[in-house]
Specification:
This protein is α/β, with parallel strands linked by helices and 807 residues long. The chain has 34 helices and 22 strands.
Length: 807
């Protein structure tokens, strides 16, 4: 970036140290140096944002508003400096001030604003939208403690508060000038006058939403995107009279109740209080965001009749589905629009991405609970439902069952996915397979009713972060072989494919991979005490712990290898290091048991000196973006083994791919499109496809027959009920064979086990032939450009939002 040199940056940092901390660079602590450095970067972003707004002020271009309950942004210092092209300048400046920029990078906390793929995708999209010069705004909640900080103690997941704001607040710009009131509960009072219904509230609980902005820099772009986060406060923070009377808790109760809304991401909802809190969180951030959008639109244009031409509101999964009735409320209650006009506008600006086919993840709310907490929104949703059902009755007279399934409210349940579909102009899945499954199964009736609504946008990743920043040595190799055009044009990665048979490139790739594995090995030893061999195969599965992602199948494979080596420690098994990471939801008991099993298998293997030369199992706690940036470049095998038809897309598969790891996966999610891109010879696909899964369920799946007919599988499952230091896993054994009073092996691990083992053996055989392996790696890297978020955003902009770049 022009205008910033080492001398200027040093001067800026020294000024911040003096002004805010009263110290010189020589006397500054590492934290003071970090915060001063961040302040200078934030000043650059602020100046760029002001210039960008001046540039776009007179342009009547459509703005994109991206709503998501989570944004897993990762540490910002390195990312911003890279995008501003100031990383080298700041490295030298900080060094001359007596610091180490890499130490500042390492010590920066991950913002507690997300959990997994959903939040990481939202952040990747913010990066691409900003880089591609779309006027971009993200909206979410400023969670005080994030999801949780995961600690593993004796194999057990322990959830601790993630106090990320203590150090992470440096990137937040408080906007005390931007706040809105959000109403909960109470009684809705209707007052019809001159043909308009004037709405007021009696005894409503009011919460004040206060904005905090996080600026998002695009790569080598004039654009600065804004991630606006809402913090919940009480309008009545302190009651002095009650406090003076000794009622200390009551005096601050309103403040405590309100602030609870922005305490944590995804509070446990296995009780009524948790359900109420989740529903309240969703409405809180949706209402504040839409109030902000409408107010800003009126400031710019002085009218609302062009709203549908000037904004696009995108809801990332069902959590923000209340955008539909809330925008109706604002247009009808606050601006006096009639229903038809408001509905035409809402269904022209809102679009919805679905991320799951799992029924339990398609949010529903008890109608009584919904009406109690959101009475006005409940009235509007009932009217949306009544009108929609009337339309359906005209189209499908007498089809009670179909209409009931499509209704927004049915049998006392408010269905958020149905609400999102009915109120959106476009609905998309996130991979070709997922989008087709949506149209063929859970959304089949909607596809028949409004086929023009449904489309696909395959997910993508921020390749600048996951390749250029996370794996700089590989990035430099690609630049040397081709050019640097792939940084802004990811499709140009295909130019690297011409080096697929280049032995010199293979040797460079091998060295880069080994160096990255050595760095991760040191991190593993630091975190777990386990010593791993960087020359072993790094077989990695890092993602949220869930039955459908089938960490269970992976651990069965490991137990099988362990079983073989117990019988014959000299068996010809390639040395492998199996790496797991991911969080289990606090109330998800079985997912926590999976973690406990992984940790126990690890400790058992460590007891056998000869076996641990060939097998290592590592569970890395508190998986986040920072840890992922170390893992992906060091991985050899990418485990993408969900049951076919269950994973919507997945994006870790893309991050592994672009870093040269090869995929061991099922015919699920984005694996299918990776296979189409690289060809059958450069990916290891196994197991049932989605149609075969459905056929097997229809015929009657019997996991016990697979157990009976495969000796190694049988012996491996039997080990689950054996005592390992007085620890056994009989519930896990029952899960596979009897179902613990539910369906046995509900995600068909046993049905895919034999094919999985054979594919793994083929993969290890190919790994031993380095020329063959690295030829495949080059092909995978070269075809990863399609899976960039830049391409995804282009698809959204052209086919869903109908938005243009600022030129």
């Amino acid at each position: 970036m022009e205008g910033y040199n080492v001398k200027q940056v040093k001067k800026n940092i020294e000024k911040k140290l003096s002004t805010y901390f009263g110290v010189t660079a020589q006397d500054a602590s590492e934290l003071q140096l970090y915060e001063a450095t961040v302040m200078t970067v934030r000043d650059i972003l602020s100046a760029k944002r002001t210039a960008w707004r001046s540039l776009t002020k007179q342009k009547e271009i459509k703005k994109i508003y991206y709503f998501s309950m989570e944004f897993l942004v990762g540490p910002s210092l390195k990312n911003n400096l890279y995008n501003l092209r100031l990383a080298d300048v700041y490295e030298k400046a900080v060094c001359e001030l007596g610091g180490d920029i890499n130490k500042l990078y390492e010590d920066e906390p991950d913002p507690g604003l997300g959990n997994g793929g959903l939040g990481r995708l939202a952040s990747c999209f913010m990066d691409s939208m900003t880089t591609e010069n779309y006027p971009t705004y993200g909206y979410s909640i400023c969670y005080e403690y994030g999801l949780f900080k995961q600690k593993i103690i004796d194999g057990q997941q322990i959830e601790l508060p993630d106090d990320w704001l203590e150090k992470g607040k440096s990137w937040l710009v408080p906007r005390s000038d931007i706040s809105y009131t959000v109403n909960f509960g109470g009684k809705v009072v209707e007052n019809w006058k001159d043909g308009r219904n004037y709405i007021s509230y009696e005894k409503a609980e009011q919460v004040k939403a206060v904005a905090y902005d996080m600026m998002i820099s695009g790569y080598d772009s004039p654009n600065i995107g804004t991630l606006r986060l809402w913090s919940a406060q009480s309008p009545n923070k302190f009651n002095m009279n009650l406090f003076s009377q000794g009622n200390y808790f009551t005096a601050v109760k309103d403040s405590i109740d309100a602030e609870t809304l922005s305490r944590v991401l995804y509070p446990a909802d296995n009780h009524t209080e948790g359900k109420l809190l989740r529903l309240s969180q969703q409405y809180f951030f949706v209402s504040a965001s839409l109030q902000n959008i409408v107010e800003n639109h009126i400031k710019k244009y002085g009218r609302l009749d062009n709203l549908k031409d000037k904004i696009a509101v995108h809801i990332n999964d069902t959590h923000p589905a209340l955008c539909v009735p809330e925008l109706m409320r604002i247009l009808i209650d606050e601006h006096g629009w009639n229903w038809e006009r408001a509905w035409d506008t809402v269904t022209s600006v809102v679009s919805y991405t679905n991320h799951t086919v799992l029924p339990e993840a398609l949010e529903e709310w008890d109608e009584g609970l919904f009406g109690l907490r959101l009475p006005r929104i409940h009235m509007l949703v009932k009217e949306i439902n009544r009108r929609f059902c009337d339309e359906l009755w005209q189209r499908y007279p007498g089809s009670w069952d179909k209409i009931s399934k499509m209704a927004v409210i049915s049998y006392g349940r408010v269905r958020m996915a149905n609400l999102a579909i009915v109120g959106s102009k476009k609905v998309n899945g996130v991979s070709k397979l997922h989008s087709q499954i949506l149209k063929d199964t859970i959304f089949k009736n909607y596809k028949e009713y409004t086929p023009q609504k449904f489309t696909n946008v395959t997910n993508g990743i921020a390749h600048r972060r996951w390749l250029c920043m996370a794996n700089p040595a590989l990035c430099e190799l690609i630049k040397e072989c081709t050019s640097d055009k792939f940084i802004l044009e990811p499709k140009r990665l295909i130019d690297f494919e011409s080096f697929r048979d280049d032995k010199g490139v293979h040797e460079r790739l091998m060295k880069i991979k080994r160096d990255n594995k050595l760095a991760l090995s040191k991190e593993i030893k630091r975190k777990t005490g386990i010593v791993v061999d960087e020359n072993s195969v790094f077989d990695v599965q890092v993602k949220r712990i869930h039955e459908y992602k089938r960490q269970t199948l992976n651990i069965l494979k490991i137990i099988s290898y362990y079983r073989i080596l117990l019988d014959n420690p000299d068996a010809n098994i390639t040395p492998q290091t199996f790496i797991f990471a991911g969080k289990a939801a606090p109330s998800y008991y079985f997912a926590k048991e999976i973690i406990r099993l992984i940790c126990k298998v690890s400790s058992e293997i460590e007891k056998h000196p000869k076996i641990r030369e060939k097998l290592k199992v590592v569970f890395l706690e508190d998986y986040n973006v920072s840890l992922a940036e170390r893992i992906f470049p060091a991985s050899d095998i990418s485990e993408q083994i969900s049951l076919a038809g269950k994973e919507a897309s997945g994006t870790s598969c893309m991050k592994f791919m672009i870093n040269g790891a090869l995929t061991l996966g099922t015919q699920d999610g984005a694996n299918i499109e990776i296979r189409e891109a690289v060809g059958d010879d450069n990916i290891y696909i196994f197991g049932l496809n989605a149609n075969e899964v459905e056929d097997l369920w229809a015929r009657g799946y019997n996991s016990f027959s697979y157990y009976q007919n495969n000796r190694l599988l049988r012996e491996s499952i039997n080990m689950l009920s054996e005592l390992w230091d007085n620890v056994s896993f009989p519930e896990m054994e029952n899960y596979f064979l009897s179902g613990n009073n539910q369906v046995a092996d509900p995600f068909m691990c046993l049905a895919d086990y034999d094919a999985y083992m054979r594919a793994d053996a083929k993969m290890l055989d190919d790994y031993a032939k380095s020329d063959r392996w690295y030829r495949k790696a080059v092909i995978n890297i070269s075809h990863a450009g399609y899976f960039s978020a830049d391409r995804s955003i282009e698809d959204y902009a052209n086919n869903i939002w109908r938005a243009d770049r600022v030129k």
